[in-house]
Structures are given as structure tokens and as C-alpha cells.
Amino acid sequence: MPAAWGQAPGGLMGSQGLRVLLVDDEPRLRAQLGAVLADYGVAVLGEAGTGQEGVELACRLVPDVVLMDLRMPELDGIAATRRLSEVLPSTAVIVLSAYEDPALLREARQAGAAAYLVKGCRTSDLVEEIAKAAGRDG
Amino acid sequence: MARPAAVPWAWRAYLAGGAVIALAYYLVPATGLVPRWAAKIGLYNGLGLSAVAAILAGVRRHRPERPLTWYLFAVGLLSYVTADIIFYTYQDLLHLEVFPSVADVFYLASYPFLMAGLLLLIRSRSPGADRASLLDALIVTVGVGMVSWVFLVGPLAHSPDVSVAARVVSMAYPISDVLLLATVVRLVVDGGPRPPAFWILCCGVGGLLVTDTLYSWIQLTGGYHTGSPIDLGWMTWYVCWGAAALHPTMGALAEPAPPREVRLSRWRLGLLAAASLLAPAVQVVQLARGQHTEGLVTAVGSMVLFGLVLARLHGLAGEVAALAVTRKLLLDRTVQAREEERIRLAAELHDGPIQRLTGAAYAADLSRRRLARADLAGGQQLLDSLEDDIRGEVAALRRVMVELRPPALDEWGLSAALSDYAKLFEEQTGIACSVHTDLPDRLARAQETVLYRVAQEALTNVVKHARADHAWVALQVRHGQVTLQVGDDGAGFATTQAADPVAGQLGLNHFGLASMRQQLEMAGGSWQVHSRPGNGTTVTATLPLG
To answer: What is the pTM of this model?
Structure first.
């Protein structure tokens, strides 16, 4: 049985009240991810289409977690993660990328990412990682 | 001045008239009605003068781009005919044996004009440096020149009974013939166009050279007389050059040859081998005749020939090295192009299917959660949207798959695959694309693939560079070859421009074309691009059937 099967609205334990920012250059994907996260009880504070926008919005909204894509125009995900970990150390960054590449994983870690998830992972796993990164993993 | 209308049969009529006069030249004196000298001066020299007139008429009719060539030929011929008239006036009318005479001045003066005309022609036909053709011409010339020296010039130089002036003038003839031969050989081995006028011109000059050589040989034994059969050789020269000037293709003679490598064909190799072996052959003949004169000439000739052959070999080695470099560059570029294609496909997968399927997974998760909460309407709505997304994704992936390897190519063959691709091309680019094919059967799988990729690359170039409204693809089988043509009505380009260094080396102007050429050549085929600014572009690819 899937981890989230039969969950009531509000989602997994500890996900309630989590505040995230979505940074991805695909608007439709952002909308679909935002909708499912909201169903898990995760509050989506905002969305950004580039790394630069993501950093600026994060500084303004100070979310618990930023979900960061890697391949983006202007400022890529690694550079944005590095900048966020410098200017906003209280906010965790989770990289959510299409690439399953150990070198990228290593680079993301070095840039200060709390976790690296591959796009297509279960939403419940993502929500768990968000909770963990925000320090609410139980 | 209005240009006179071209008369396509004029050259044939002139040839026929020339043949009748030549026949009359031999038959009329035999009847006893007209003395030999009158036939010589009237018919023979009349024929020479008619050739001069034919050349002037040809220039007026066909307006060649460089008429100077033909004017030089006309002056050369006129000089030769003048010499003949003077010579036979001395010999047959005045009964004077004068040698050297004014006639020799005109005879010898004709050669520089003929050579200058031929050199101008060569320069128009081969504008760039063509070292290989030059060396080939030199090898033949040195070989033949050495034979001429040993058997004609040498004996004349050592004639004990004649004056120094007579010796010098006598020697000047075979030397002039050898120089003329050098020019003719250079003309024959160049890569320029060879319309009928070219062959008629060569035939004429061949007649002159052979006859001059025979004449010099006969003169050594004192056997020449007016009305001799060898006069036919000179008359052949007159008539051929007049006919060449009147031939409708005379203007095409001076058209520049397209840039191409000089191939060492079998006949050329044979000619060079024969010319190179002339030195030892002459030595053998001299030994057999028990003559040991001119040994120094054959030795020096051998050395020069050896040097020339080595220079040719060096040139060939350089060509092979250059080809190896080009091949390596081409392979590097092919690898690079393949990697670029993979990068493009990876980016397409990343930006398209992966993002959209990830979103679909989120939507599926959300719909499941709604259904679990008995929110049937919300769940149903999400599932409907999800179904549309997945259908759209399957269509997008099918397009990628078709681009990678069209199933029609395997199932129904090249014609069907090209028609499908043209339809897709029209939809995606808005450029109308028609396909005409008359392939009776399926081609070999590898050939179908190569031709399909060439058409794909050519149409990609139409989108990238041509600014065309219409493109067309034609596929046909003729004379054991399959020919694919892809054309457009776009901007075109100057085929001499070479923006890309590798492509420049290949005579192409961008890499897509170089890649096409490589694919075709690897499959044993060939290709051509015809393009002019403002007149569209046509790519023609040819493969042998089977």
C-alpha cells in the first residue's frame, strides 16, 4: 500500500503548518506540485521561475523549506542553493531534479542542500523529506 | 550591334565544305586542268583563309566571354597561311629555293599567337593554381621533347651542309612544336569543360603537331613535295579550328572548371608512365640503331623526368596527407554533431516528458487522495485531466521516436517515409513541401537510411538558412543510380563562400552539408549543391543501385 494511501486531508504527521517555496521554471509542474502539497497540509508560500527570483522571494518570505529545481535560467539551482545557505541559513533547501547523478548530488550537498530528490519520487517521500528538513520529523 | 542569329548547322556545313576542298586539292591537279601550284595556292591556302574567316564569324555569332583567345588563333592561322603563300610563291612560281626566307618568319611567328591563345583559354578554364596538371603536362612535354630532340633537332643541328641560319631556323620548328604540344597537353589535362568544340579544337591542333613532326622527318630525307598526303594534316587543322569556332559550344570552352581534385585516372597514369619511359626507350632505339649521339640529352631528359615524377609524387603525398587531416576533422565534427544531437535530445526529454510526467504523478497522487476521501467529483476531474496529459505525452514521445527512426522507413520504404516527413515538415515550419518519387522497388536498407538522413538534413538547412516558401523532394532511378534532389525557392548562397573552416576545406559552406557528403561518400555515392544568391538551393545526392 502506498505510504500516503488513506491519509486524511492534512497529510502525514508533522507536515501540518510547513511553509515551502517552489522554485522551478515549469509553471504547470509548480501548480501541480503546489496542489498536491497543499492537500498534504503543506503551505505553499510562493513560486519562482528562476534561481534569482527564488533567492529574492525566499529572503522576503523566509519559508521553512525551498524546493529547488537545478536546470533553470538566470541562476541555476546549485548557485541559488549556495546563495540561500549563505544569506538564509535557517531555511532548508531540498533539490528536486530530473537528474539522478551522483556528481550533481555531491555538488548540491556541497552547496548546502539538505536533501536531493529525483523528480518522480512519491509525494509522501517528498513531504517526509520536507518535514525532516524543517526539523519536524517527529 | 545586333548579335547574328546562331546557326546550329554552320559548323557541320563548314566541315563538309572543308572536306570537299581537301578532296578537290588532290583530284583537280590530277585532271591536268589546273597546275599543282595553283591548287596549292588557291584551294589549300583558300581553306586556311576560310578558317580565319570562320573564327571571326564564330566570335561574332557566339560572342565568347574572352574573344581575345580566338583573335589570337585567327592571327596565328593568318600568319601561317601568309607563310604558305610566300613559300609556294618562291617554290612553285619563282622556282627559287630560299631557306630561310620571309616565309619562315611568318611560319615561326604563328606559334606564339597559337600558344598565347591556348594559354588564355587554359587560364580561363583553370583560374586557380593547378600544380598537378602543370606537372603532368611537363612530364609529357619533356618526354616528347626529348624524342623530338634526338630524332629531329639533333640531326638538324649536326647537318654539315647547311648554313648556321638554316640550322637555327630548322631547329626552331620542332622546338616550337614541342612548346605548342606542352600547351595543348596542359589544356587537355585540366579540369575544364569539354564540349564538342573542345574536342574539335584538340583534333585540329593534333593534326598540326603530327603533320609538323612528319614534315620535319621527311625534310631530313628531302622527300616532301607539294601535294603530298601529309598536306591533309594541315588542312585538318584549318578545318577543325574553323569548325570549332562555328560550333555552338565554342563559348563554353572558356568556362571555369568547378573546383575539384585532379584525379590520377587510369588513362592519365598510362600517359605519364609512357612519357616517363620515353627516355630509356630512346636510349634502347639509339643503341639498336648503333647510334651513340645525344646520349647527354637522354641522360639529362631522364633526370628531369625523374625530378618531375618525384615532384608529382610529392604532390600526391601532400594530397593524401591533406585528405587524412580533412577526414580526421570530419570525424571529429561527426562525433561532435552526434554529441550535440544527444544533448538536444536529453534536453528535450528533460524539459518535456520528465517534467510533464512528474506533474502527472503529482496529479495522480492528488486524485487518489481525493477519491480516498470520497471526493468523487474532484477525483474524477483530476483523472480526466490526467488522461489528457498522458495522451499528450504519448503523442510527444511518438514525435521524438519518429524523429529518431521513422517506422515508415522500415515498414513501407523511403518514398513513404519522405512523404510522412514532408507532411510533418509542413506542419512544423509552415514551408510547403512537395514530394515526387518514382522508385519501382525498395532500396537496400542502408541506402534508404542514408538518403532519408540527407533529405532530413537538407530540409533542416532549408528551415535554418533558406527563408523559403516552398521546398521539394524528388527521388528517381535512372541509369542504375538512385538520385535524390532536395530544392527550395529561398535565398540561396554563393557556393564559393566558406564560413566553416572544415567545410571550407571540403568546398562546402556549412557543416550540415559536410555531414551529408560524408554519409553519401561512405555509402559509395556522390553529391552536389547548386545554389546562387536569390535563386534557391538544390542538393543532389546520387547512389549506385544494388
So the answer is: 0.58
